[in-house]
Design a protein that fits this description.
The protein is of the alpha/beta class. The chain has one domain (about 1-255): Ribonuclease Z/Hydroxyacylglutathione hydrolase-like (Metallo-beta-lactamase, Chain A, 4-Layer Sandwich). About 25% of the residues lie in helices and about 25% in strands. The chain has helices at about 40-45, 60-65, 70-75, 95-105, 110-115, 170, 205-215, 230-240; strands spanning about 1-5, 20-25, 30-35, 55, 85-90, 115-120, 125-130, 130-140, 145-150, 155-160, 180, 220, 245, 250-255. The chain is globular, with a radius of gyration of 17 Å. The termini are close together.
Length: about 260
């Protein structure tokens, strides 16, 4: 399994970068994990839109779904003669959000025509092409699911999505071959919102989560280019107890 980083930015895209998006390839099968702002243009550097078999969305924030709009446009117009519609897997309630996005932008049923929209059942193990997918709800500002992609030979890639520190994720990600975790807060904890909720974590906390999971490899993502990358890396590495990688556009990881 090969994971290519298309975008690693938080809600504000890095200069020249893109928000959350990862192209996962297993043989001839291609899965796009999240499709945030700027991701579609980056995707086209690696494959054509109709080459994507499945799109999997962790949660319905704009920095994880916004580029479904240009993606859907590309499939609906220049490629409308093609029978292939990528499978679009959204979290519970996501189908309604897709309809609302269509209404807001006045595009009718374009997204529903471009994609085969399905809401996944987080409690189930989902077969996605040659991969088995499991989900774990994680604490964020809206309902959000981490996911695990497992190859036919048992290699495991776990993506933590956006989340605050929690006990469920390390257990879910235990012994992952590759664990990608966010560090939106960089090296210092940001204040909780008015309800006392935190939706993100620091690099140190990400390292602690990965260490608790006994992950074989840790990649830090979803951090701003306004942060000092070496400070982010160092904070995660100290708490993880081993070297870590920092996600960047075009980076490729093999699991």
């Amino acid at each position: 399994m090969q994971i290519t980083v298309l975008g690693k930015s938080p809600a504000m895209p890095d200069a020249g970068g893109a928000c959350s998006g990862y192209l996962v390839s297993e043989g001839d099968f291609r899965l796009l994990l999240d499709c945030g702002t700027g991701v579609f243009a980056k995707l086209r550097m690696f494959c054509e839109p109709n080459d994507v078999d499945t799109i999997l969305i962790t949660h319905m924030h704009a920095d994880h779904v916004a580029d479904l709009l240009p993606f859907g446009h590309a499939l609906s117009f220049p490629l409308r003669h093609l029978a292939h519609r990528p499978r679009l897997l959204v979290p519970p309630g996501g189908a309604q959000r897709i309809q609302e996005i269509s209404e807001v932008f006045g595009i009718g049923y374009q997204l529903e025509q471009a994609f085969a929209v399905e809401e996944y059942e987080p409690a189930s193990v989902l077969t996605v092409g040659p991969l088995e997918t499991r989900f774990q709800e994680v604490p964020h500002y809206i309902r959000t699911w981490a996911c695990e992609l497992r190859t036919p030979i048992g290699r495991r890639f776990t993506f933590g999505a956006d989340c605050a520190p929690n006990e469920a994720l390390p257990a879910f990600a235990a012994h992952s071959d590759l664990l990608i975790l966010e560090a939106t807060e960089g090296t210092s904890v940001q204040p909780a919102d008015d309800d006392g909720i935190r939706g993100h974590m620091t690099a140190q906390e990400a390292g602690e989560m990965a260490r608790a999971a006994q992950a074989r490899r840790l990649v830090i993502t979803h951090f701003s280019d306004q942060l000092d990358p070496e400070a982010v890396r160092a904070a995660a590495a100290v708490s993880f107890g081993a070297d870590v990688d920092l996600a960047h556009g075009g980076a490729v990881y093999v699991v």
